[in-house]
Design goal:
The chain has 150 residues and is of the alpha+beta class. Helices cover 39% and strands 19% of the residues. It contains two helices and five strands. The chain starts with 12 loop residues before the first helix and ends in a 6-residue tail after the last strand.
Length: 150
């Protein structure tokens, strides 16, 4: 029995190369979006840490009547996990009831080491967020300080 060319079917090398080229183009267009989404997901951990530490600071102010100093904050702050997005958490006391919680970030997908989230407490007990993160991954409630000298 003879096989004719019409009964043996398959993909030609050219067809396979075109499919691979199309997949490569789609992957290269979606990679920045995936990187940005990974960075945003990691920042949720940092925001959760900030919220927890804001509560600790508020409790400290209720008990002691003033914003904690760095030494006092070290006694009440939570220990960071080894794989945490946060490199360090510290406070900057400005006066009796006002100050900052500074979360310095580790190098991670879409985030450069030592970028930060700063949560500032004003005299009206409101917290505002500022950061030097890129605008495309900046949390919604945070203001960008890119280009602003500290």
């Amino acid at each position: 029995m003879l096989f004719s060319r019409l009964t043996i079917r398959g993909f030609t090398l050219l067809e396979l190369m075109v499919v691979i080229a199309i997949i490569s183009i789609i992957a290269s267009l979606s990679a920045p979006t995936f990187t940005r989404q990974i960075a945003k997901a990691k920042l949720i951990e940092a925001q959760n840490l900030a919220t927890q530490h804001q509560s600790l600071v508020e409790e400290f102010i209720l008990l002691h009547g003033s914003f904690p100093t760095e030494t006092e904050f070290d006694l009440i702050k939570q220990t960071l996990a080894d794989d945490s997005i946060a490199k360090s958490i510290s406070v900057e006391s400005q006066n009796r009831n006002m100050g900052n919680i500074l979360i310095t970030l580790n190098d991670n997908t879409g985030i450069t080491e030592n970028q930060y989230l700063r949560y500032s407490r004003d005299a009206n007990r409101n917290w505002q967020c500022s950061s030097d993160l890129d605008n495309n991954i900046l949390p919604l409630q945070c203001e960008s300080v890119t280009g602003v000298e500290e």
